[in-house]
Amino acid sequence: MSSHEIPLSRPDVTQAEIDLVVTTLRSGRLSIGPVLEQFEQSVAARCGRTYGVGCSSGTMGLHMALLALGVGPGDEVITTPFSFVASANCILYVGARPVFVDIDPRTLNMDPAGLERAITPRTKAIIAVETFGNPAHMDAYESIAARHEVVLVEDCCEALGCSYKGRPAGSFGRIGVFGFYPNKQITTGEGGMIVTDDRHLAELCRSLRNQGRPLPEMLRDPGHPGAGVSSVGSWLTHERLGFNYRLSEINAALGLGQMRRFDQIVEKRQRVARMYMDRLLDHKDLILPTIAPETVMSWFVFVVRLATSYTREERDRIIQGMRRHDVGCSDYFPCIHLQPFYRERFGHGPSDYPVAESVSHRTLALPFHNDLTERDIGYVAQTLDLMVGRENLKRS
Description:
With 396 residues, this protein is α/β, with parallel strands linked by helices. It has 2 domains: 239 residues, Type I PLP-dependent aspartate aminotransferase-like (Major domain) (Aspartate Aminotransferase, domain 2), CATH 3.40.640.10; 133 residues, Aspartate Aminotransferase, domain 1 (Alpha-Beta Complex), CATH 3.90.1150.10. The chain contains 14 helices and 13 strands. The strands form 3 sheets. Strands 1-9-8-5-4-2-3 form a 7-stranded mixed β-sheet, with helices on both faces. Strands 7-6-11 form a 3-stranded antiparallel β-sheet, with no helix packed on it. Strands 10-12-13 form a 3-stranded antiparallel β-sheet, covered by helices on one side. β4, α6 and β5 form a beta-alpha-beta unit.
């Protein structure tokens, strides 16, 4: 391996998190315990919500959110084609139909005007994705959802610690979902978190994640269908179709340790993003992330775009060249509607969502993690210059 090998991403895990995980392992309580509760409270407080519900992934959080909101067969759910595929898959899990809306080329989030045009009598919900963690337009989506009396689900899986117009990601709409995969701002290894101010939704999601078991407080309610069930047998009482979407105490311990360092983690990521911005700002062949003044980013990834004159094939060769030089690089994201499964099932094709497709064909996700140095950034930028220069030579 080259001494300059720079991975695309890498989690920031310190001895403090390791110690907390070890303490949890030694406690003998490895599931549904106090560490998960602390982690849920920490994340909910960070985004100004009352309730947090930890789960096994952001994808499963979105699935439960839609189930808890009553979305099902015959319903339509509007979302973006420019996201990780889970944003749309969760709609299919509940039997609803995803309806895509093209994106704003500056923010890379759904175009608000297009969103409003897409609403029909069958629209039950909107899943608004904060692409690359950018919460731009969330207030507009919230207003549109309220005006049309549909539910707004905030897919904030990439946005923990970001804010828009003074409001933290996770605070928009009826319910929000975070993800904690290892490339996110914080990680639990695998995991996610539902956040909401609605107690009923939170309790329903807690039941859904735990095989449909009733919660103890539910059984104490005289009006609850499960009232009177013996507390001894309640573990084997299942009042609804549920799932094993629990987040273990071990995963929660890692997340709780990360949350205790959260401000430091965000500061590191902002520092790396500033170094990239400074180094690439004058690059004539690149379009850098556009961040509005009212937006604070905690930076999930650092994705640039090649200028509109470049083709997808040229972009792909640049990625391959970066990798040959031991620099992690990737396309981010391929459009959901052009994924083989979606094309086959729904008949989508090229040019259905031209802005998303144009952006998708020219994206370059550069190495991004907390401990990148100025030397690392310089090497990435020099390698990128070299690869772009080679493509330009082929044109001449």
